[in-house]
Design a protein that fits this description.
This protein is mainly α and 79 residues long. It is built from three helices and no strands. Helix 1 (2-21) packs antiparallel against helix 2. It is elongated, with a radius of gyration of 13 Å. The termini are far apart. 15% of the residues are buried.
C-alpha cells in the first residue's frame, strides 16, 4: 500500500513541476484535470485502518496543490 502512495506522490510532484512551466490556458486545464483524476483515483481506494492516515495526507496534499494552482491561475474551484 505504501508503495502505491509513493507512486501517487511522484505523480503529484510531476504535475506540480509541469505546472511551473505551463504557459497556456490549455496546459493549465490539462494539469488541473490530471490532478482531479488523481484525486478521484485516490478517493476510490478502500483501505485497512493502518494505511488510512497516509492516504488522508495524500488527499490533503492533492487538494492543497489543486487549490494553490487554481488560485495562482485565477481558475474556478471545483466542488
Amino acid at each position: 500500500m505504501r508503495r502505491r502512495t509513493y507512486r501517487w506522490y511522484d505523480r503529484l510532484r510531476e504535475l506540480e513541476a509541469a505546472a511551473e512551466t505551463a504557459t497556456s490556458e490549455s496546459e493549465r486545464y490539462y494539469i488541473l484535470d490530471q490532478i482531479d483524476r488523481l484525486a478521484a483515483q485516490v478517493n476510490e481506494i478502500h483501505l485497512p485502518a493502518a494505511f488510512r492516515d497516509d492516504f488522508y495526507r495524500l488527499r490533503v496534499h492533492i487538494d492543497f496543490i489543486a487549490s494553490k494552482l487554481r488560485s495562482a491561475w485565477s481558475m474556478p474551484v471545483r466542488s
